[in-house]
Design a protein that fits this description.
mainly alpha; two-stranded antiparallel sheet; Peroxidase, domain 2
Amino acid sequence: MHVSSKFTVGCDASVLLKASTTNPSPENNPIFNLRGFELIDAAKAAVEAICPRVVSCADILAFAARDAIHLLTPGGCIYDVPSGRCDGTVSSFQEALVNLPPPTFNLTQLKRMFESKNLSFDELITLSGAHSIGQVHCSSFTSRLYPYNPTHLDSGFAHALQRECPKNAAVDCLVPQDHVTPDALDVQYYTNVLNNQVLFFSDYSLSTDPVAKATMQLYSTDFRNVRWRPKFIAAMQKLGQFKVLTGTQGQIRKTCAAVN
């Protein structure tokens, strides 16, 4: 869903820009393990063939995120996404590093970063549910396995991860964020957090706060998503309107990988 792009500089499709002489170190860096951009490129090409330079890459990315959420959520999840965004012309790997919360963050650091984006603690808990899907490299969390802390990580889960991610492995393998329902955007994430069966320390840190823990307990029994889903939609809509570029602030890129 590429929430990272929105969280860094706003929903301006900066994450789609490839390296160039004027922009040598963009957000689109292998360290973030972002994939699937060819689908956005295909959608852009199809739109450009019908109505050139009208629909921005930023809008296409926002629509794609909404559609992915709908397809991955059991029972579906359709919501309105306003259009009219312009594309940005700058993409900075360094800026992404500074603005994206790393998996090692504690709760205080997470809350401070989300507050800087005008996102509440409740929205932090709600948006963290996106970690119910996707895969991450072993190197993102092996510091929790070697050495292993039984207080922070369920022993059976840790031992399973150690088999998939051996110490000093030559290959940096991919592991699903949610080992129970890896292909569904659902509330299983919250059960995993409460059971100390999550990959990132940042996810574990949510369980150290009594308010977050109470909220996650509510979500974890919300099997029809009637509590979590509308709050997740509202948070995604808010995130999709963060620092939107309009008018002369940006451009409508002809291709998503490069500025005009």
